[in-house]
């Protein structure tokens, strides 16, 4: 706990829950209005008090005293949202403001009083600025400590330095804001804060507990903690204005690099890294363009410049990549460019990448990949992200280097070992020739994911073919193996021929795993069954039969 209390200036807005209802919901605060919580009045307007309504009354009793009463339910979120502009207005005059509760905020009085010419002048300046900026009436109080300053604000009073104990001494114990403790103190004969503060601290702690000891400190003019002021967020946005409209991609790229370096230096000064970048542009005809780029990791100055250049190239040339229609390009050149770091985090909290901790090797690899990406385009360098799905092809999503690595389907499976191919696992399925499945569990920790009916069991194949290869599967008698509609296999698979290759002996197999997708849409319906087979030469394949045709979908490592 702190020693001597700090000289504190507290701004108080009377009947704030009622005023917040007027600001947010349009309830006229000049009418008889009450705010209810748990069926009791917690705040009321001045007109309601004139009708005899007080805090603590039940709803029925309050409406009995004023039949035309307007009742508003308590909403803490509404109170906070409405109070934020008031706090921002105070921060325009003084630095370091702590929000005590919606409707009250405090700051150290020393700085404003020295800068604005005294404590009284500082209080008047803040009250006047809040009234002009937010159209909100408020009162300010100054005393030693937050608790005493709050009581002084209700009277619009400035307590002289060192006079806080005398100011509090005559206050009733109800001023502590602890009804149960105040009732007990009154029954014990203690009616004022001065009488309560005169009690020995050890006896108060033994009789009333820790909360009573805190109240005892407040009654004696000592705060339980110093001010915990909030710091206004730093403005990290960088903007560049151009006298001559920029309508060429090369000129825009040069401007983007200069602005990207400014943004990176500003972020580095605060020890931050950008993970989501907003690019905003304004043309000479007033057209506003906006796009947000996400990034999974550290955005360097070069990476920021590349993304700004790609975006400006798309805007100025009207190109949206391969295929598709060309969007309408702006009718005039760009006169303002703005970079907004929409998502930031401390650099020390970045996840180590593929090449270990953030260091020279990682930066070298990142620069090399970013350079290739800058020459060939954002989709020229891609990495694989694993997700959910029924087939290996559905589980892999290729994302451009530097973009957010989010799976396309819910339920990401365990990550493969470093350096492995997408979906690689430790070993293929090994099954006896009789068809009884015996599969080895893949490496990696289990991850909870949604069920995917028809999904093949782990381990996942190492290579997924972009185009399945036609195959022919026959039994020991040389007859084609057929899978019926009820998933009955005509005979055990014995030989496999892929394309025009030579037949290979099947030493083990498992399946079938059926998949019946989008049966409700005949044009998109697909029905097939999958098998895992191991061959005499040690290879393991994932087969699928669809419409009577056998296909090789993937290869196990």
Automatic annotation (TrEMBL):
Keywords of the record, alphabetical order, are: DNA damage
Region Disordered: start-end pairs? 403-425
The UniProt regions of compositional bias labelled Pro residues, in chain numbering, are 409-419
Read off the InterPro entries from this record: DNA/RNA_pol_sf, Rev_trsase/Diguanyl_cyclase, SulA_CellDiv_inhibitor, UmuC
Stretches assigned to the UmuC domain: 32-157
TM region positions: none
Q: Which family does it belong to?
A: Belongs to the DNA polymerase type-Y family.
Function, in words: Poorly processive, error-prone DNA polymerase involved in untargeted mutagenesis. Copies undamaged DNA at stalled replication forks, which arise in vivo from mismatched or misaligned primer ends. These misaligned primers can be extended by PolIV. Exhibits no 3'-5' exonuclease (proofreading) activity. May be involved in translesional synthesis, in conjunction with the beta clamp from PolIII.
**PANTHER family hit by this protein:** BLR3025 PROTEIN, BLR3025 PROTEIN-RELATED
Full protein name? DNA polymerase Y family protein
Please give the organism: Micromonospora aurantiaca (nom. illeg.)
């Amino acid at each position: 706990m702190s020693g001597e209390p700090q000289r504190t200036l507290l701004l108080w807005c009377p009947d704030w829950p009622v005023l917040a209802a007027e600001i947010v919901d349009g309830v006229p605060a000049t009418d008889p209005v009450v705010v209810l919580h748990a069926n009791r009045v917690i705040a009321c307007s001045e007109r309601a008090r004139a009708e005899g309504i007080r805090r603590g009354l039940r709803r029925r009793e309050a409406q009995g005293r004023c039949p035309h009463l307007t009742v508003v339910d308590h909403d803490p979120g509404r109170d906070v949202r409405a109070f934020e502009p008031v706090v921002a207005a105070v921060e325009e005059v003084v630095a370091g403001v702590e929000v005590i509760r919606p409707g009250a905020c405090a700051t150290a009085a020393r700085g404003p009083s020295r800068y604005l010419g005294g404590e009284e002048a500082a209080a008047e300046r803040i009250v006047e600025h809040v009234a002009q900026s937010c159209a909100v009436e408020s009162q300010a109080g100054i005393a030693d400590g937050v608790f005493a300053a709050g009581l002084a604000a209700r009277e619009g009073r400035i307590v002289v330095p060192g006079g806080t104990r005398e100011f509090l001494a005559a206050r009733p114990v109800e001023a502590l804001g602890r009804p149960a403790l105040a009732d007990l103190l009154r029954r014990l004969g203690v009616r004022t804060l001065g009488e309560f503060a005169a009690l020995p601290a050890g006896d108060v702690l033994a009789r009333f507990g820790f909360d009573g000891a805190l109240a005892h400190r407040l009654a004696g003019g000592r705060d339980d903690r110093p001010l915990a002021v909030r710091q206004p967020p730093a403005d990290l946005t960088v903007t560049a204005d151009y006298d001559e409209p920029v309508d060429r991609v090369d000129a825009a790229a040069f401007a983007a690099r200069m602005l990207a370096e400014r943004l990176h230096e500003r972020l580095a000064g605060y020890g931050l890294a950008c993970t989501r970048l907003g690019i905003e542009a304004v043309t000479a005809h007033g057209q506003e363009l906006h796009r947000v780029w996400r990034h999974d990791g550290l955005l360097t100055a070069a990476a920021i410049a590349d993304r700004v250049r790609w975006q400006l190239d798309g805007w100025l040339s009207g190109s949206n990549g391969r295929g598709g229609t060309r969007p309408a390009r702006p009718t005039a050149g760009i006169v303002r460019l703005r970079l907004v770091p929409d998502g930031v985090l401390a650099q020390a909290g970045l996840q180590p990448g593929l090449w270990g901790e953030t260091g020279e090797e990682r930066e070298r690899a990142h620069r090399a990949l970013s350079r290739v990406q800058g020459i060939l385009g954002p989709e020229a360098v891609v990495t694989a992200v694993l997700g959910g799905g029924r087939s290996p092809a559905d589980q892999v999503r290729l994302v451009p280097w530097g973009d957010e690595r989010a799976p396309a389907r819910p339920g990401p499976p365990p990550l493969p070992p470093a350096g492995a191919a997408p979906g690689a696992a430790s070993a293929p399925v090994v099954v006896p020739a009789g068809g009884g499945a015996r599969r080895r569990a893949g490496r990696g920790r289990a991850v909870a994911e949604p069920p995917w009916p028809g999904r093949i069991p782990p381990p996942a194949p190492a290579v997924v073919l972009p185009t399945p290869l036609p195959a022919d599967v026959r039994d020991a008698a040389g007859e084609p193996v057929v899978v019926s509609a009820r998933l009955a296999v005509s005979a055990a698979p014995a030989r496999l021929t892929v394309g025009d290759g030579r037949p290979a002996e099947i030493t083990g197999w498992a399946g079938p795993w059926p998949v019946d997708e989008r049966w409700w849409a005949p044009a998109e319906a697909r029905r097939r069954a999958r098998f895992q087979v191991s061959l005499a030469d040690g290879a393991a394949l994932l087969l699928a039969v669809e419409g009577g045709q056998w296909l090789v979908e993937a290869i196990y490592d």
